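Fill in residues.
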């Protein structure tokens, strides 16, 4: 699974990028979604790479994310994080009874610089395995 976190805010975002973010479910700053690693999704992520941070999520971080920030569609129901994480390859979050997005806290110990153009080690774009560290700081 690919975890995508919106880092950039709403102001000054071009309409085409805003529409892409809305269709992916990233409507607010510091919200996250889980997406399958298909070629279409990879192309979309390349289009919005200056506004989001993404990378492959490992199993432990996924379970922790569902446990701490997963919200059920129907209030009052319990969430089994390990069972949900194991079934996520076959079904999406909505089918499993969870909201399809996660609201996150701003990262503790600050965001590493938001440089866009490959200068410095910013948090935007493809972070590969570093996305797990960022997600843990945002829980």
């Amino acid at each position: 699974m690919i975890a995508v976190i919106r880092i950039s805010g709403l102001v000054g975002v071009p309409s085409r990028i805003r529409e892409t973010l809305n269709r992916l479910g990233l409507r607010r700053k510091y919200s996250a979604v889980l997406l399958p690693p298909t070629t279409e999704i990879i192309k979309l992520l390349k289009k919005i790479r200056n506004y989001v941070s993404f990378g492959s999520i490992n199993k432990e971080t996924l379970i922790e994310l569902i446990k701490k920030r997963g919200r059920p569609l129907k209030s009052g129901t319990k969430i089994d994080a390990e069972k949900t994480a194991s079934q996520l390859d076959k079904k999406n979050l909505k089918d499993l009874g969870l909201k399809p997005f996660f609201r996150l806290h701003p990262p503790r110990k600050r965001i590493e610089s938001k440089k866009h153009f490959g200068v410095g080690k910013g948090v935007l774009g493809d972070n590969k395995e570093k996305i797990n560290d960022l997600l843990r700081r945002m829980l």
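The radius of gyration is 15 Å.
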